[in-house]
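sry for the spam today, last one i promise. C-alpha cells for design, 256 residues
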C-alpha cells in the first residue's frame, strides 16, 4: 500500500457518534478554511465520495449544509466554490470610503453616471424639493463601490444641484462626504436609514459581477446637514459579501 493510499484510508469516514454527513461537513469546512482560498473550487462529488468513503447523498447533504452556512456557493455547470468572507459593518454615519478604510481595505469607485435631472417623487420628497414641474434639479449619481478590487455595492443617489453646484466637475471616485465638507462646507451630521432585502436584477447583477437574483442587502439613507436634507441614496450590497452587525438592548419599560 502506498503512502497516498494510507492517507486516503486515514480520512475515510466511519459510523460514529455523529452522522456521516456532519463528519464530512466538518472535514470539508476544514479543507475550505485551511487549504483553499476564496474563489477556489472544492473537490468534486465523486472525489469526495472516493476520498471519504461515503455515498453521493452524504456528500450532497454535507455540502448543502455548508452552502446554507455561507461557506460555499454552488455555480451551476461549474462546481462548488469557497465563498469570499463577508465584510461586516456596524450601522454608523460614515461614507463607504470611510467604512472600508476603517477595516483596512482599499476602497475604489467606478463612476457609472452623473447628470442633473428632476428627481423621482420619493427622492424629491426626501430632499424637500416640491411638486412635479417645480422641483428643480438634483444630481442623479450611480456608482459601483469596491473593496480590494471586489464589487460590493451599487449606489444610486440624488443630491440637490442648488446645494452642490458643479458636482459633476468633481472627482466622484472617492468619498462624497469629503467633497461636500471640503468643497461646499456641507457636513453630513444626521441620517435616517432603512434596510430591506431583494434579489439582484440583471443590470445590477452585471455591475456587481454577480449572478442574476443574487440576494442583496438594500439600504436607503436620507442624510441631513445642519437640518437641511442633502442626500437620498439607495445602496445595493451583495448579500454574499456583506453583513451588518447590530448591538441590541432591552429598553427600560415600566409595566402597565
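last one done:
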Amino acid at each position: 500500500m502506498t503512502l497516498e493510499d494510507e492517507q486516503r484510508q486515514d480520512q475515510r469516514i466511519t459510523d460514529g457518534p455523529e452522522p456521516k454527513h456532519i463528519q464530512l461537513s466538518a472535514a470539508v469546512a476544514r479543507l475550505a478554511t485551511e487549504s483553499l482560498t476564496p474563489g477556489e473550487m472544492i473537490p468534486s462529488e465523486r472525489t469526495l465520495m472516493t476520498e471519504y468513503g461515503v455515498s453521493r447523498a452524504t456528500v450532497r447533504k454535507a455540502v448543502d449544509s455548508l452552502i446554507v452556512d455561507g461557506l460555499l456557493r454552488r455555480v451551476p455547470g461549474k462546481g462548488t466554490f469557497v465563498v469570499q468572507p463577508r465584510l461586516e459593518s456596524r450601522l454608523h454615519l460614515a461614507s463607504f470610503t470611510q467604512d472600508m478604510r476603517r477595516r483596512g481595505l482599499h476602497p475604489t469607485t467606478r463612476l457609472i453616471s452623473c447628470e442633473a435631472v428632476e428627481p423621482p417623487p420619493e427622492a424629491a420628497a426626501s430632499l424637500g424639493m416640491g411638486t412635479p414641474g417645480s422641483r428643480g434639479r438634483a444630481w442623479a449619481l450611480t456608482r459601483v463601490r469596491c473593496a480590494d478590487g471586489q464589487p460590493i455595492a451599487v449606489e444610486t443617489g440624488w443630491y440637490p444641484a442648488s446645494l452642490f453646484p458643479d458636482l459633476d466637475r468633481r472627482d466622484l471616485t472617492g468619498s462624497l462626504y469629503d467633497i461636500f465638507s471640503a468643497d461646499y462646507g456641507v457636513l453630513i451630521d444626521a441620517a435616517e436609514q432603512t434596510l430591506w432585502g431583494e434579489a439582484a436584477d440583471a443590470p445590477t447583477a452585471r455591475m456587481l459581477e454577480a449572478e442574476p437574483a443574487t440576494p442583496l442587502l438594500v439600504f436607503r439613507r436620507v442624510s441631513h446637514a445642519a437640518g437641511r436634507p442633502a442626500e437620498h441614496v439607495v445602496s445595493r450590497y451583495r448579500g454574499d459579501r456583506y453583513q451588518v452587525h447590530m448591538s441590541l438592548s432591552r429598553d427600560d419599560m415600566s409595566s402597565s
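The CA atoms of residues 108 and 146 lie 5 Å apart. ok im logging off now
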